[in-house]
Design brief:
Length: 410
Amino acid sequence: MTLAIDGGVPVRTGTPLPSPLSPEGRTFGPEEEEAVVRVLRSGILSGVWGSEVPALADEFSRLMGASHAVPCSSGTAALHLAIAAVDPAPGDEIIVPPISDMGSVAPIIAQNAVPVFADVDPLTGCLEPDDVEAKITPRTRAIMVVHLFGKVAPVERLREIADRAGVLLIEDCAQAYLAPVRPGGPLAGTVGHIGCFSLQQYKHISTGDGGLAITDDPALADAMRLFADKGWPRASGERAYLSFALNYRMTELTAAVAREQLRKLHAVVERRRASAARLATLLGAVQGLNLPADGGDHVYWYFPLVIDGLDAPALQRYGAALTAEGVPAIAGYLARPLYAEPVLREAKAYGGSGFPTRGVREYPDGLCPTAEALVSHRLVVVPWNENFSAADVEDIAEAITKVHVAVVPS
Ligand SMILES: *Cc1c(COP(=O)(O)O)cnc(C)c1O
């Protein structure tokens, strides 16, 4: 069969698959509309004086089984609250994976700390605990783990490693809402000292932008609340500025929509899991295709395909061919590992000074070979969606099978 990219008939004709940039690919309904109107009519749009932001904090912490939740303006902001709560001295180190959104790394640089990259698992792209342990030095202050594409990273092992080293574990859960770390186990975000979530347009639930950080530790919660609000201790009634901090506050409009989205989250995750399981069944016989490992601990932000036997141009062709068949796909997920981006490789943060990394850490090619292989020639991701129908999933399976057979040498 001729691939659509070569002029053949695409598998998917007619309506495009639901995407997060269309109403069909989101779960916004009359509930969110009413929430927005409710806030506007209250006259209070700021979370400092309103009721929606505190209610969201209460509802999210209860949903997650955490003692505290701090709403803020984005997932990156939530991670910045976490790094600020770690309170690194300049030059202290924080261990991160090279496959993530830059939002995982930028807050480390913003706090003048040094990102140290550990390599990842060859199938999940999540941090490899042995390599994390090898990267710990006397200057390590925290480990940040990312639950990539919705798959739970080995957080319980990482928590042991963090505890042994006397450092904090931060979980970046922007892609992993309501993911149990093992059947019947705690949720991702509650094993580490702090868990961070995003409400950006593409996540499981959205307010356009927004974020949440959770913790059981009251001191970390206080530090994060202060960092989101210029160091101002609102509860005391005093106009004081207790610490260096920015303004990362969430608004009432955002919180009101987030509360409605939260009520839909269980169903969103269940539907994503059910359709992903169906796709995995349909693709089970495809040779040279590694499907995501799922022990009930994957909530499918994206559906990752790990492919054996391709070079970099063939991987690009695989992604482009799938997209041409009507199944939007991204070869490699990133253009390059995060450490190859200019902010790290060229130390482009602070006025040409090279601070805080130049002469301290190098970020050369070969730093994390397993991550580099995934991004350059092994990984293709298909953005997943709770509103995929059974017929949509069949189209996706047919397109992947067609492209795989045509592109991968047998
Ligand atoms: C989306 C995302 C972020 C950043 O969240 P924003 O809300 O876009 O700032 C951080 N980490 C990961 C893994 C993400 O997917």
